[in-house]
Write a structure and sequence with these properties.
Layout lengths: L1 E2 L13 E2 H8 L5 E5 L4 E4 L1 H7 L9 H5 L7 H11 L9 E6 L5 E13 L5 E9 L1 H102 L9 H21 L2 H5 L2 H15 L4 E6 L8 H22 L3 E9 L4 E8 L6 H6 L7 H12 L3 E6 L5 E8 L1
Parallel strand pairs: 8-9
Antiparallel strand pairs: 1-2, 3-4, 3-7, 5-6, 6-7, 9-10, 10-12, 11-12
Helix pairs in contact: 5-6, 8-9, 9-11
């Protein structure tokens, strides 16, 4: 038994569906439409009308229905209609956006299937709609949340990368500082050892001079006095010889004592200052080594030199001239002291016209006494925060430049 469907306005439609199937489509809980291949909508069920507010009178054709579909177009509708009536083929679902009569927007997912033919042979198809409005809203919400999360993750990643870069930079800087500190420690150990060596060398020098000069003079005085004391006892307490020889020995001993004392630290450095001490030392140097001419020039006053720097400058002058006398075979030495680095430092230059030497070779020799004076001068400068430069070549003399910050 079959039943001929009726439209919403009471007209009898020209197609037949078996009564149980027709009632099932009409009363289905989801929107259902029956379309014909000539573009007509043959039926819209109760759920469709209730959901959209549209009756068969409002949308008699697919084109009329397309007017309520927000994402539809003529070409899309034509393609959709062509695919809708392919026989015995369930089409893939498609999603549409439509507006109800009360202004609400719905999102439906449509499932289509062929439904046979009308009484006059036209093809029919059933369209079943599933409301996915809430699903899409949840999807959009999830997309929004996901987008925000991705943005937050991206921001956190950028911040983390920036933190990692900063940490790596700090680690690299700390490693550089550790390396520099290790080098400084090694240099400090080296300088400490050199300082101890210097002290021991000074002690050996003082010990040798005390033994060879003052000790010898005192021994000579002692033997001479003992001899004269024996003669005096032999002559009943009378001493026929004078003590001139012993007095000469004493005067020589006093001079040696003063010389050794001056080498340790000249009293003029504390009493008269650096400039007067340098002048005194140069007079002594010229008196002892008259074959070397010293040209001394300075534009620095006593007040310009910090107190702690005076002994450093004096020792460098003393060591530089001593090296020139012992090793250079020079005829003249130029000693110049002035300001440098915008009056923020004092520059001391010692330059001779001697035979010169290979700087690297001398400083790299394993003999602990080789280059000892040069190393001592350099270390005195570095301890004070200054710099020490030496230039020399065979046959072209030597130039020493010590720069000390004021």
């Amino acid at each position: 038994m079959s039943e001929k469907p009726h439209s919403d306005d009471g007209d009898v439609l020209n197609f037949r569906i078996e009564a149980p199937y027709f009632q099932a489509l009409c009363n289905a809980p989801v929107p259902v439409l029956v379309a014909c291949d000539d573009g007509r909508l043959l039926m819209v069920n109760h759920a469709f009308r209730k959901t959209t507010g549209l009756s068969h009178k409002d949308i008699p054709t697919i084109d009329a229905w397309a007017g309520h579909i927000l994402n539809d177009s003529a070409n899309r509708n034509k393609n959709y209609l062509t695919r809708l009536f392919e026989p015995e083929k369930v089409l893939a679902p498609s999603r549409i956006w439509l507006k109800t009569t009360n202004g609400h927007e719905l999102i439906w997912e449509l499932f289509n299937a062929p439904l046979g033919r009308t009484t006059n042979g036209q093809r029919m198809a059933v369209i079943i709609a599933s409301d996915v409005t809430q699903t899409v809203a949840h999807e959009r919400h999830l997309e929004s949340v996901t987008s925000r999360l991705e943005e937050e993750v991206s921001k956190r990643t950028r911040d983390l990368n920036a933190t990692i870069d900063a940490l790596e930079s700090e680690i690299a800087e700390r490693r550089r500082m550790d390396d520099a500190l290790s080098i400084s420690r090694e240099r400090l150990k080296h300088m400490s050892r050199r300082t101890l060596d210097l002290l021991e060398a000074d002690r050996r020098t003082i010990s040798k001079e005390l033994h060879d000069s003052i000790g010898a003079n005192l021994a000579a005085i002692k033997f001479s006095l003992e001899e004269k004391e024996m003669k005096r006892e032999q002559h009943s307490g009378r001493l026929e010889e004078s003590l001139k020889k012993e007095i000469a020995y004493l005067l020589a001993t006093i001079k040696e004592t003063k010389r050794i004392s001056a080498n340790l630290r000249p009293t003029t450095l504390d009493d008269l200052g650096l400039m007067a001490t340098i002048q005194w030392y140069l007079r002594q140097f010229q008196r002892l080594y008259g074959n070397i001419h010293v040209d001394y020039r300075t534009d620095i006053a006593e007040k310009d030199v910090p107190e702690a720097m005076k002994i450093i400058i004096y020792r460098i002058v003393q060591e530089g001239l001593s090296n020139a006398e012992k090793h250079s075979e020079a005829n003249s030495v130029r000693l110049q002291m002035g300001f440098s680095d915008g009056n923020r430092s004092i520059s001391l230059i010692i330059e001779d016209d001697g035979r010169g030497f290979d700087v690297e070779e001398v400083l790299s020799e394993k003999d602990p006494l080789s280059g000892y004076g040069l190393t001592a001068m350099r270390e005195r400068c570095e301890i004070f925060g200054g710099s020490f430069h030496i230039e020399s070549q065979h046959g072209r003399g030597t130039r020493i430049n010590a720069i000390l910050p004021i």
